[in-house]
Specification:
alpha+beta; 2 domains; six-stranded antiparallel sheet; four-stranded antiparallel sheet; 15 strands; flat
Length: 264
């Protein structure tokens, strides 16, 4: 149902068009509603290519969920296009598969790990624009563990947080992402990975105007993967906070930044 929001403005569906607000702007996006029916796409020979596209998109969506679940602790800093940018990266990885036919190409991150390293969780606030010094880290695929060392942060010297928020904290996460292969009309790992629990460490909230001393965070996965077709993903992020009371600090949505440090 369409919703009137102002003079000749609405969001929702109205006859042959739909409209929605785009996050980060005041604009209302209007799109025509058209296209073939689901039955036509599923059955007609003329939509064979569309079916291949949809299958591979489904594979990338499943891979994106595994990756995003790994940095779910940082979901409040993600920009609205985070998923779209991640899917674009995974498409570049998927097309590198030369062993399977179009429509069934694998999303094998373990064969192309370098393409994901450096991925910024918030394109509005790239991590490098906030912290000008490199983040130290070690990561072991065999031991399923990692160590992250954030250097001392000095406001206006090597630390430039976005906005005028009073507090910040650092968050590190370590997660497992399995390779996905097309099998029986869907994408999945060759063996069951069960429920994958990322390991997350958060620092204490600290005052922005005071900066921080060096912070070290050690992460250790608890579940071992069933095979070698996986990637170990290490992510670092900084959340910005505002005081709700003398004892409660609330994370500010879309503020802060983070990136994928390493994939092994």
């Amino acid at each position: 149902m369409a919703k009137l929001t102002g003079l000749l403005s609405f969001t929702g569906k109205l006859q042959g068009i739909s409209a929605h607000n785009r996050r980060g702007t005041n604009a209302i996006i209007i799109k025509p509603r058209y296209g073939p029916s689901k039955k036509d796409i599923d059955t007609k020979p003329s939509y064979a290519n569309t079916r291949r596209v949809n299958k591979e998109f489904g594979g990338r969506s499943t891979a994106s969920k595994y990756i995003r679940d790994g940095y779910l602790a940082l979901k409040q800093i993600l920009d609205p296009d985070n998923l779209g940018r991640l899917n674009a990266l995974l498409q570049a990885i998927q097309v590198l598969d030369r062993d399977n036919v179009y429509g069934q190409r694998s999303v094998a991150l373990s064969l192309n790990r370098g393409l994901l390293e450096g991925f910024n969780l918030n394109a509005w606030h790239p991590f490098e624009s906030m912290v000008h010094n490199p983040i130290g880290f070690t990561i072991s695929r065999e031991a399923l563990k990692a160590m992250v060392t954030v250097p001392p942060l000095l406001p206006g010297v090597n630390f430039f947080p976005p906005g005028k928020h009073s507090f910040f904290r650092m968050v590190a996460s370590l997660s497992i992402v399995p390779d996905l292969h097309y099998h029986e009309n869907k994408y999945r790992p060759r063996e069951s990975y069960g429920v994958l629990h990322p390991q997350v460490i958060r620092s204490e909230w600290m005052a922005v105007n005071s900066g921080s001393e060096a912070v070290s965070m050690e992460l250790q996965m608890r579940e071992a993967p069933p095979n070698e077709e996986f990637s170990l993903v290490l992510t670092i992020g900084i959340q910005m906070g505002t005081a709700q009371s003398t004892s409660v600090i609330q994370c500010v949505k879309y503020a802060g930044g983070g990136k994928i440090l390493a994939v092994v």
